[in-house]
Amino acid sequence: MAGLSITHQLGSLAGSPIQSSSDSGLDSSTSSAVVNAAAVWKSPQTNLRCRIRGGGTEVEALSPPVSPCRSPVLNGIRADLTVACQAFTTTDREMEMMMPRLEEEMMMKQMRKFKEGGAQDKDNGVPVYVMMPLDSVNMNNGVNRKKAMNASLSALKSAGVEGIMMDVWWGLVERDGPGVYNWGGYIELMEMAKKHGLKVQAVMSFHQCGGNVGDSCTIPLPRWVTEEVDQDPDLAYTDQWGRRNYEYISLGCDTLPVLKGRTPIQCYGDFMRSFRDQFKHLLGNTIVEIQVGMGPAGELRYPSYPEQDGTWRFPGIGAFQCYDKYMISSLQAAANAAGKSEWGSTGPRDAGEYNNWPEDTPFFRREGGGWDSQYGEFFLTWYSQMLLDHGERIVSSAKSIFETIGVTISVKVAGIHWHYGTRSHAPELTAGYYNTRFHDGYRPIAQMLARHGAVFNFTCIEMRDHEQPQDAQCAPEKLVKQVALAAREFGVPLAGENALPRYDETAHDQILNAASMKLDDLEDENEMCAFTYLRMNPDLFQPDNWRKFVSFVKKMKEGKDANRCLEQVEREAEHFVHVTQPLVQEAAVALMQ
């Protein structure tokens, strides 16, 4: 696809076709076909001739066509005309050396025109990041599909995307032994992002990849960690039936030296410290955010709804994960302190199974449910506080490691929107969020993040209430508003993600509305600090999806208050999609290889 690049358009303007040279970082093995760009740049011909002196010689030739849309007197010579003129006074070798730089300047100029055109306030909108593929770095610590990665990053930059989010897997980097870190693939990937002018949100992924929604590959925890779990299965989260979950080390042993003499919290801290030391030259400029993984899928929650092996299916209520010996020990201590030692031997035994609905269970049912009893209050307070304490330990460690570097710390919270309309909010309770009709479970999270100046990153931003199964009383819009109110109350910046891949304008419009939400009649709209789009893949670069995405990014960057009609934004997006189509086609093809 490189054969359809801007190089050929410039070549046709200079009077002769120019063969494609390899883009920065792109393989040169792609097609070198010659394309006539007359259909792209149409200018009236002229009979003027110009005489150019250079190198002790004079050359007389027809001048390049004068652009009807930009006067050389008013705004300088158009970039494509400059290339044509230079072609008369330089040797073939000089032109060959100049073309990559000139082509890059042309693309950058077009990008600036698109991103800045007409925006009244460039700081008014919400920057968009794009999640990278989960397997961007492979098991050999190299970058997967380098050609595709380069083409894709170039296409994202051309669309006005602020940056990318990438998982930095504990299971890859520290795989070989405790304290032995191999950053190889990430060094290369970070440099690629820097080269393309993209910022990076780096996720410290201390969880296993595989078994969750959208997991397209399997990356286990470090080998030496799984060996410890094999010897002591209670290091894994456990449900009341004894089923172990190996996605993430149980928070019940956070402060115990169970991993080759170190505590899990120490392991996470040492990993982040090594990351800081390895990438200190990029922190604060290329790497602008550290999202700290705190549970399955990198989210601050318990693994209460595991999809692996069909254990859970939407919209089941999930199950409490507090039956390993370390969690039970903590529960017993809390019960003893409350003067109710009989409450400490086990969690609720009447909370149903993973795929039950609230009314199927004595604990979660609407009337007389255990959740609304004295015991229920005790247990849910302990269960949610254990999760909050876990989050505070890790975010405190991250803050101490990165606080002088100039990066943002963020924490991701799951958007559990099913059965939100019930009194008990059962799926949120099993995940560790003590959120019911009578108890706000997101204020304590926002308060904890506020203490450390961290960003509250929330999912399901793209969803509308009426799109979800109403018999399951799903309410993602109401949930997002509740979280936004909690974040505003404690002055915590709110960022968002879409929970599932969406390429339609309905989802885009919902994100636009949520990104700048009016929470009440007295306040101005509350704007998110960033939005991360799920995910970079071949589907994103399909022509219709890409056109919608480019328009969405521009609308997000300009913000709601920009004095611009949406039709004009759409027209500019259409033009820009046309200009960058060859680059996008190359990215789509390369990703599918």
From TrEMBL:
Q: Which reaction does it catalyse?
A: Hydrolysis of (1->4)-alpha-D-glucosidic linkages in polysaccharides so as to remove successive maltose units from the non-reducing ends of the chains
Give the EC class as a word. hydrolase
Any GO MF annotation of the entry = beta-amylase activity
**InterPro entries attached here?**
GH, Glyco_hydro_14, Glyco_hydro_14_CS, Glyco_hydro_14B_pln
Q: Which domain of life is it from?
A: Eukaryota
SUPFAM superfamilies recorded for this chain? (Trans)glycosidases
For this protein, the record's Gene3D superfamilies field holds: Glycosidases
Work out whether the entry's keyword set contains Kinase: no
Q: Where are the catalytic residues? A: 299, 497
Question: Where along this sequence does the record place binding of substrate?
Answer: 167, 207, 215, 412, 417, 459, 498-499, 535
- The answer, when asked if Hydrolase is one of the entry's keywords, is yes
Entry EC no(s): 3.2.1.2
The alphabetized UniProt keywords are:
Carbohydrate metabolism, Glycosidase, Hydrolase, Polysaccharide degradation
Q: Which GO terms describe its biological process?
A: polysaccharide catabolic process
Q: Which family does it belong to?
A: Belongs to the glycosyl hydrolase 14 family.
Protein's UniProt name: Beta-amylase
Q: Which organism is it from?
A: Papaver nudicaule
